[in-house]
């Protein structure tokens, strides 16, 4: 009892199944890519925060004797010439 109409319905059903599988695969790929990008962003942000906090702590730990006195600071334009 095969008719011409059954072949067309089967082809449409196969195309529909292939489209749904392609869509599902694309969504899985998008989810995976988004997760990897989010993980990389987290690592970059963590590294940046760690470096900024470490630099801030190191700046605070510098001995005050190493800082130049206001009278010893150089003129940014250089020495004046006659």
Automatic annotation (TrEMBL):
Stretches with biased composition (Low complexity): 61-70
Transmembrane segments: 6-26
Keywords from the named record: Membrane, Transmembrane, Transmembrane helix
Region described as Disordered: 61-82
Statement: the UniProt record of this protein carries the keyword Membrane: yes
Biased composition (Basic and acidic residues): 71-82
Protein name: Uncharacterized protein
């Amino acid at each position: 009892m095969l008719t011409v109409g059954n072949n067309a319905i089967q082809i449409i059903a196969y195309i529909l199944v292939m489209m749904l599988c392609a869509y599902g695969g694309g969504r899985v790929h998008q989810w995976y890519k988004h997760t990897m990008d989010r993980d990389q962003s987290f690592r970059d942000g963590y590294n940046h925060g760690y470096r900024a906090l470490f630099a801030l702590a190191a700046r605070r730990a510098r001995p005050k004797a190493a800082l130049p006195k206001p009278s010893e600071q150089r003129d940014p334009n250089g020495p004046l010439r006659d």
